[in-house]
User: Fold these one by one.
Assistant:
Number 1:
Amino acid sequence: MIANLKLYFDVCCSKKLPRELLEFFKTDYPGLATRHHSEDWDAATADPVWLEALVEEGWMPVTCDQGKDKKTESLPLICKNKKLTHIVFSSTLLRKGATAQKNAIINVWEQIFFLDKYPAGTQVKLGERGGGDGEPPKYVLIPKLISN
């Protein structure tokens, strides 16, 4: 179990997300740390550069980047190679925006502390199941091993 969770939100995530989550959880989880990419890096900083810093400092990336841009090295593949387990928002949560993303993280909060049980570098997709016919969605974490 992860003792002191450190979540690092990629530039593609809302800047308010880490602040709001820290505010919500800080009393019950005093070891929690959250940061946004923009606090440390320029938006144009290459993924391998800032991800290397996360490895050294023990952060877990949270991103909307599913690695579909074929013009650049895939963030999920970089994380795999650097042995950084990371959370990726599903396409649905990406479209729904910051409030839905915050609600999803809150709903799977306790599960996040156990992501260290997976091999280092595992991509964990955060998405939703159900939610039709007026029912609220159920949020799920789905581990995925990235292939080269």
Number 2:
Amino acid sequence: MAKAAEKINKEKLKNTLASMASMFETGRIKQMKDIVTMYPTGIVLALGINYGGYMSKCAAPEKFVLEDLVKLAQILNIDLELILKVVTKEALKNTAVKDIDYLL
């Protein structure tokens, strides 16, 4: 992990985290896809997840695990609810209603 951290532009990461936090706080992030171009190399390293997983989860936020969202809120230093609001809205839109009539 130390070698990967050496490749990170710390100033760029700091600025990206501040921008991303501000965007969540002001409601400018409407969907998780809005953040994928914001220095993803630094973000995935800070989150401790892989690049491909991050990209696919941002494209289909219902696939995020709560731990990832908690970590994102922590590194952004924002209220988790701001991120959950975006993710939940998308997940409800992307997930088909489960029919369980056959079980009843």
Number 3:
Amino acid sequence: MPKAARTAAAGSVGAVAALAVLVALYFRAAATPEPMAVDEFSRVVRTLASDAHEAERLAVALTRGRLTRNYGEYQHRHLGEDVSDARKKLDAPGPGGNEADVERARALAGRLAADLEAARLRMSDHDAVARIGEDEARIGRELEAMQIVPQ
């Protein structure tokens, strides 16, 4: 077999192999993701509840003048990143039989994210920060009250 023919054949085999890998990757990416385990879901909910309570304590400290605005903004930004990470985890299908809990956790996480951003933007309005802190406390209590049970 001439060298040019061998080179063309090798290139064709390489192209076919690359195409097969791409097709396999496509089907893997397009497959329905695995549902989140109950213990992972429970951990995400506890993290969100903890973040909500921490945000509420920050709000109280800010309204009482115990924190600087810069520190408050930094902490709210950091908590916002934690909540964003938790929301990404909640994008996965929830554990079987807990769909209502997953939807409730998603809604509360969205509300907490909005509160964190609002508090960060209105840091110098103590009345607004106090109201936001009260909502963050409610969110924390609602998350803590969720009874996550394997189905």
Number 4:
Amino acid sequence: MAIAQYWTASDLAQFFPEPVPGTPLITATSYPVNMNGLATYIYLVGGQLNAAIQKAGYEIPVPSWDPVASAAIGGYAYVQEVARWGVMAAVMEQVYVGPNDEGKRWRTLFDKAIDDIRNGNQQIPDAPIDFDQQGRLLPSWFPNPDPQIRSQDLDPVTDTVNPLW
């Protein structure tokens, strides 16, 4: 499965502060991070974010639109925002080497959000839940998931762990 990129480099570049008014921080030739570097950070952060989302029991990538309900997925905006925090952290840490409160601020936001998603403390509203091939919830969806439980250990009727199996 391809890594979802919740942003394009050109869309995300506008969120970075301008070092000089009217001069963007990231351009095709900027140093140390240019548009290609920004696209790489988007790809890497998307991978981290999708791993946490999948661990929490959601399908990845989180879609922006639900074709059945003909409505936007509410959680997509949150996922997109978390991706922005991660990319902002990576770029700001690269651009401003040394004691960088700006990069640390974004890193703190991103790391907490990833942990909250991964540990089930942050739901992603309207995001599709990940089911196995038999249509049963995967174990990662349960509160306090037990890594020892596999989908084949679940009772096919109740989607609960059958202690007799």
